[in-house]
Each structure stands twice: as C-alpha cells, then as structure tokens.
Amino acid sequence: MTISGQGSVPIRETLSSERELVVACGSDEGYAVHMLVMLRTLLKAHHDAVTFRVYIMDGGIHPQTRVRFDRLLAREKRLSYEWLNVDFEELSGLMSDSWIPHLSSAALMRLLLPELLPKTVEKLLYIDSDVIVEKDVCSFYDMPFRGKHLIGVQDFNQPSLAYIAAKESSVPATAPTFNSGILMMNLTRFRETGYMKRVTEAMRRQPTWSDQEGLNAILFDEWILASFIYNMQSSGMNPTTVPESSLKEEMMGWGVDRLRSEAVMLHFTGDRKPWAGRWRHPHRERYEALLYESGWFSEAQWLSWKTKRMGSAATYWLQHRLQGQKN
Q1: Neighbouring C-beta atoms of residue 125, cutoff 10 Å
Q2: Are the beta carbons of 281 and 274 closer than 8 angstroms?
Q3: How many CA atoms within 13 Å lie on the side-chain side of 201?
Q4: In sequence order, what are the beta bridge partners of 160?
Q5: Which CATH class is domain 2-228?
Q6: What is the pTM of this model?
Q7: Choosing a second label site near 138 at 20 to 30 A (CA), which of 118, 127, 279, 298?
C-alpha cells in the first residue's frame, strides 16, 4: 500500500481559529461522482471555521476520472486531501462468494485504514460514497470512544446479530448490529489490538460475508451505539419496513417527518439508490440536483445521463409491472 500525492491538494497546517475534522472515504470508478457529491455536501453542512483533512482510497478509479475529480475538488478551499492507492492483494480471499450484488471489492478498503493512514492520525470519520451530509457532524465526531474501537449506528435492515451468530457461535445473537457505512474509527485502538487482522481472518472463514459482517463478528462488544440520526439508512424513509425490534419501535415513535428533518447524514443503503432503479425515490429530484451542481457533467453529458436514467427507470417499472401480472 502506498500514499500517492499525485493530483492531491496538500495536507496543510490548521489555523488556530479553525476546527479540522479528519475524514476517510473511498470509491471505485462507478461511485466516484457520488463520492464527490458526498464531500461537497459535507462541506456545505458546516460553517467556514470547520475544515476537513480527507484521505481518499482509490478502489480502481480511472486516471482521467481522478483528473476530473481533482479539478472539481480543488475549488473547495476548506478541504485538503490525499489519494491512497490500495493494494488489493491484502484483501484477497475476502467476500469471494458475496450474496450482496451491489457491493464491490472497494467496500473492503475501510478494513485497511488503521495501517494505511499515518500513525499521527489517531481517529477519523469514515463515510460511504452513497451518503448526503445534511447537518454538522461535530457532535458525532466528538463522542468519546471510552476505550472502544468504533462508534456507529444500529443497522436498520439487520438490527440484531442473529444472522451472524448462526455462523459464529461466539457472537451474541441478541446484540445489535452496527452499519459499517458511517463510522467513527479509533485508529490508535485498532493499532494496539490488531483487531483488523482478526476481522479479515473471520471473513476468510466466511466467504459470503461483507466487511459489515466481519467487523460485527469480531467487534460486537467493542463499539458504542450512537443515535440513528447520524446514519439515517434507506429504511428510515419508511420505518414500517424495519424488522420488529426496539429500534423499529423508537423510529415509529419519531415518525417519518421527524426522522427526515433531524437526520445528520442520509445513507442510501441497499440497491435502491436515488440515481438508479425506480423513479419514485423520495430523494431522486434532490440528488439529481446535487449531481448537476457538482460540475461533473457537461450539458451534453447531463442530457445523455438523464436520458439513460429515464430509460432505466422505465425498464424497472415495466419489469415489475409484468412480474405483478404473472403473480
């Protein structure tokens, strides 16, 4: 693994009047534009005194795409960043029989962060690319670790560890599952314990597991539960779809309007993304506006993208209509 400064905005010293947050993210070619959208919303959600030092893991982004990314991100004066080139040999044998079709090997890169980053980086906020940041994240960033490795939010689709405990008897089935898409990571603690090695060993024993299953299997008692407002996953748009649990009861008590209005980060989990699939996604129009405003597309490219988007939505609708008629 190497740290590449090519095309990066140098990490700079922070003025005493500023507050700097350290963030990590990563992408393959397909998610590069969405990672850009996430970073731009991260900046927009904070006042000018908050700056960001970002480490971006390259999971197979084309060189010309990185050039475009650099050109657009260089406009952001409150953000400095470095590209991290990932050696996927270190992840060989992981997720080799995944049951989650929308996940690529790029999802595994977060497992390398404790060793990939400089030892001077003691903690960071990891954010997936399919996220919109709505509000200031400092309250999440400042939560104490209390000696634990992670701070996270309970997973909406798999609230308990029962599905992991079925394969690993040491895992308590009734304990909560954390979602691995937004995490505060105590890198110092990870380096002290070497727990990431245990995570990858567990994943090699269970080739269907994604990073989330591996992390939860080893760190089930090594994380702190934060409010779901910090990782409002797709099911939060309709909490009736959350499996029966105390989490569902709490979310139902809040109601959809409050869940949406108080969300700090919106996380488009699963294969239902606002830029793909069904047309009636509750955040489709807003996300398309963010894509357009990102500067990623020329006018001709945007027209082409919109045309393809409408075509894929029509195909999705037709397939489900025909499926309904068969049933």
Answers
A1: 23
A2: yes
A3: 6
A4: 176
A5: alpha beta
A6: 0.91
A7: 118
